[in-house]
Each structure stands twice: as C-alpha cells, then as structure tokens.
Known about the structure:
By secondary structure, the chain is an alpha+beta fold. The protein is built from 18 helices and 35 strands.
Amino acid sequence: xxxxxxxxxxxxxxxxxxxxxxxxxxxxxxxxxxxxxxxxxxxxxxxxxxxxxxxxxxxxxxxxxxxxxxxxxxxxxxxxxxxxxxxxxxxxxxxxxxxxxxxxxxxxxxxxxxxxxxxxxxxxxxxxxxxxxxxxxxxxxxxxxxxxxxxxxxxxxxxxxxxxxxxxxxxxxxxxxxxxxxxxxxxxxxxxxxxxxxxxxxxxxxxxxxxxxxxxxxxxxxxxxxxxxxxxxxxxxxxxxxxxxxxxxxxxxxxxxxxxxxxxxxxxxxxxxxxxxxxxxxxxxxxxxxxxxxxxxxxxxxxxxxxxxxxxxxxxxxxxxxxxxxxxxxxxxxxxxxxxxxxxxxxxxxxxxxxxxxxxxxxxxxxxxxxxxxxxxxxxxxxxxxxxxxxxxxxxxxxxxxxxxxxxxxxxxxxxxxxxxxxxxxxxxxxxxxxxxxxxxxxxxxxxxxxxxxxxxxxxxxxxxxxxxxxxxxxxxxxxxxxxxxxxxxxxxxxxxxxxxxxxxxxxxxxxxxxxxxxxxxxxxxxxxxxxxxxxxxxxxxxxxxxxxxxxxxxxxxxxxxxxxxxxxxxxxxxxxxxxxxxxxxxxxxxxxxxxxxxxxxxxxxxxxxxxxxxxxxxxxxxxxxxxxxxxxxxxxxxxxxxxxxxxxxxxxxxxxxxxxxxxxxxxxxxxxxxxxxxxxxxxxxxxxxxxxxxxxxxxxxxx
Length: 704
C-alpha cells in the first residue's frame, strides 16, 4: 500500500493540497475554493479530490499519510480584519501606554512608498487592545534582573478579576525587563491558572524574551488577540482530520519557515502570521537545491497579493522582526515583501487614472468571471478578456468562467471611463500589474544590495505563471522558472519542510571602542552557558512535539551592532562551545555579516561592538519526498493542441496553445505561446523560449 506526504495551504481564494507518494516521488496537486467561515471544509474538499485521483476513499488516503503539514492565513486574517479576542493587558506601573504611544514610525510601517507621501492620510494602526483593558501593576525588575519592587499576589488577583469583569477573553502580560527575570510573570500565570482556568494567556518572557519593550509587548498582545480563534480553527481541523482517518499529528507552517505541532501553534499563534508565504519560500529553497540554483527570487502571485522573498546561497532571507498591518512584531520570519497585486486585485479608475489593487475581490464574491456576484473587474477578468485564460478550461474545466461577465465588468468600470476599447483596458490592467510586481522585485533585490540579473525567478501561485514572463523580463533575471508545482507551490513547500523551533534570549554585552580582543570583555564560559541553555530548551520543545532529540540539528546566531546603533545584524556562529579565541573571532564574523548587507568597507569596528541577543535555531529534518525524474520523449517534438486568439500589444493574434500535462522533459516551446495546465496557464512572450526540465519545471529564457 502506498504511503503519502501531504501539504496543504489555505489561500485567500483557493485551498491547495499537494500529495506526494513517498515510494515513487509521484506528485499530484489539487485545488478547492477556500471556505472562510470554516477553512476545514475547503481542506477536506481538496483532500477528497486527491483521494478520488488515487481511486481510493478519503479515509484510506489519510490512514496512510505519514506526514501532514498545513499552512494557514487564519491569524493574519484575524489581525487584519480586527476580529480577534477582547484582551486584557498587564504591564508595569507607568508603562501602560506602550501600545498606544508606539514607535515614531508606526504610521508608516509597512506602508508602500507612494502612500507614505500622503502625509495627511498616515495614521497609527488601529488599536487591538482597549485603553480601559490595560492594568498597571506595581512591580519593578531592573536591567540586571534584580527585583526592586515585589509584586503582590493580591494585586494580581484583583487585576485579573477586573479584566474578566470587563469581558476579557484572553490576557497578555508584558512586564518591564521580564526577559531578564520572569519571576513576576510566572506569578501572574499561577494566579490566572488558579482563578481563571481556561482563559487564554501569553507571557512575554515565554513568547519573546528579547529586549525592546514595544516589540515584545506588541507581539505578546497579538498572540493573545489571535490565539483563541486560531486555537478553535486548528482544533476543528485536527478533529475533522482525525474523524476522517488521520493517524499522525498534523503540523503547521510557521513564519520562520519550519513546522510545529498544532498544539504548540495554538500557544504561539503570532508565529504563524507569515505561514503561507513562508511555505513558498521554503519550497523554493528546496527545489533550488535540486536544480542547483542557489540564488532565487521567489514570486508568489495568488488571489489577493504578490509576495516576494529572496534565497541566497540556498538560504532563505529571514528577519528577526516582521511588520504585520503596521505592527512591528518580534517573531522570527522568512523575509517576504508583499503588495496587493493578485488575480483578484480590483481595477478602478480614480480621477481619470487607472489603479489596480490593493483591494481584492477575495474568494467571495471573487472576480466577476466567477459569476458569484462580483461586479468589479480584476486582474483575472482582464486575463480572460485578453484571451490568456481560457474560460472553459479554468482548473482543467472544473470551474467554468463567465467571459461575458468579465468583459462587462472591464467595460463598465475601466474602458468606458477611460474612453478606450475593452481589450485596451484589459491590457492596461495587465501592464500596470506586471510593472508593479517588477518594481517590488527590484526593491527586494537592488535595495538589499543584490543584482536581479544574478538571480532566477521562481514564478508560482495560481496567477504567477500567467504574469511571470512579463515581470521577469522587466527586471532582467537570468531565467524564469515556473515550478511543476506552481499553482500549489506553497503547499509543496509546506510538505517538504522540517520540524523547527527557535529559542532566544537578550543578554546585552558591550565591548568598548578600539577593543581589539572580544575575550577581554566577553566571557567565553558565559556565552557557552547561554547557548547550552537555549539548546536544551530547543531540544525539549522539539521532543514535546514528537521529535527525536537525537536527530536535532542546531545553528547559532548572534544579533550584534556597533555601539550607538539602534538595530542589530544577525551573524551566524559556528561554535557549540567557545574558547577565548572563538570569542575573538565573533568580531570578524559580525563585520562580514554587516558588510554583506551594507557594502565592503561600511563596517567600523573601532567604534565598539555589542552583542544583544543569542538565538538557537533547531530543527529535525523530515524525510523529503523525492521527486520523479523524467526522460525526454522519443520521436518528434511536441505539437500545440490548439490555438487561441489573444489581444497582444494592441492587436489580436492567434497563439499556439500547448497542454502542460502533455509536455515531456526537454520539450521546447517558442513564444509567443500559451501553456494550459489544469491548475494554471503559463504565458511565454515574444523573444522567449521555454524548456521543460527533467522535473517538469518550465524554464523560460530569452530566445537568443
């Protein structure tokens, strides 16, 4: 009997499932409309399609699944839509305004550059905790972790009672310097568990023991804000999968690019805010290894957004902080930049100018062509009008699109207001979208010191292959690769990811200006001891999620900065134990990391260097499903299956159409041409050619 690895990703429009037969590496992908009110319904529907394709019952598929991993947008949607739990916040006396004062840059955090210039419209993010739900406690721990003022148990009891009376569904606790000494936060946990059992609780000293009061508080508050509903959603899904036959514990994709158990994810919901995009980047890094492509721009165009990440030397770029809806959180995350440019992005005319996005038609009602009540034209509608998407072959014909509705929406909302033909309006929508995506890729590469011409672009997502030829050509990438898993690439990445945890602790240390030897100022025994403690905590957490502690691989990182700087740079550390000579070498490792970001010669070591945060990144590698390698076809090359008239550069042109599932290794398609897959459509432009590799990925390059 076959056994399977399954990865699933819930997107804004579709829920994707990738099933890999572990013995042969045979891979299949499936889509079902996302069901926002209960995401488990859309997941089960996609799994039923997978079971039917295997000619077995759903129970048999799930009973023989060895690894099931899931991506989610639940936490992100809760935060963005402001529908989380009513929370109470406990803080040190005198610091109750932390969430409301915020950082000076809160008005512009994560805001596109064009919008930053509209100063009158810049506002702080909407609060997620009410001011009268913040209670200040009379306690104090100093910078060294010494208790200066004891916290009264009676005061905690009264505070918890007041918050419950105010309707608190969850409590967040962020006390000053608690990451240095958590004794008071642990006392609060004792009181809550005794007097309000079942109330969702987050302690900043457990979730994010890191310096920077605002970021630590924000992350703690968000965790309690999204935690209750995320827990309910994951609990419902886990129970449903179990009822249908699942025997293994499902895993959830985390923002840092690894997996965690559902139980751990319920405790650390803030760590799932970038779950979906992280899956695509992780999948790209793994596929890049198979293709010997170390430097990759990951470009995910789904129904609501366009997400860009970077893989350098086969390592995804990560950040120790992530901006979510203007809130600067402290959870480690795969570094992804996003704009509202997806298949569902709405086109409109404002003051005589055409704009596309960031608003999206989403899954409900969706683009006008979905015939579900949507009346606004979207990027998908434009692609239908242009003839790039065949309305009778969408999702392999399972979903028939209403081409007339797409035409009418573009005509009424764009063509008529601009005084152009419907086709010209649709082409303008596509052009604006492609250029917005190219601009984002430039910002993600050039502004980080990378030349996009030295990268390949992985174009994926349901709409990615349709537009990749446009934005890829614009930025001058070496090649555009459309993965065989393009339409479900995030789900594929989730299926190939590892069980991972990150443990950290801020323990500031400073070397004075002109210091030549770190070992004269930093204790090598103290550094070894801190990493040993973080390693032990990581092994314990992985064991608690069913992992084998003997299989753990741990990497160490130090967040460091020059004295007087505000932000740190993460530098990898090779050692597991440290001698004085190893500590001296830390300076050189930091300088290398700093100059890799800011340019050769930008570092100035004589200014003095500080160590701020110690971090252990631990993982247990899941068995990777080996993909099948394919041989070239024998005999004549591939012929197009049909033709389709496309409006291209101002005129109607009959283009050859190939069926993607019939393409074999080394088949070549010369542009302009279309390749229809059952889950997406790839466009090859004039002057380009596409070659199928032995993993059935489509590699698009300039024809010359």
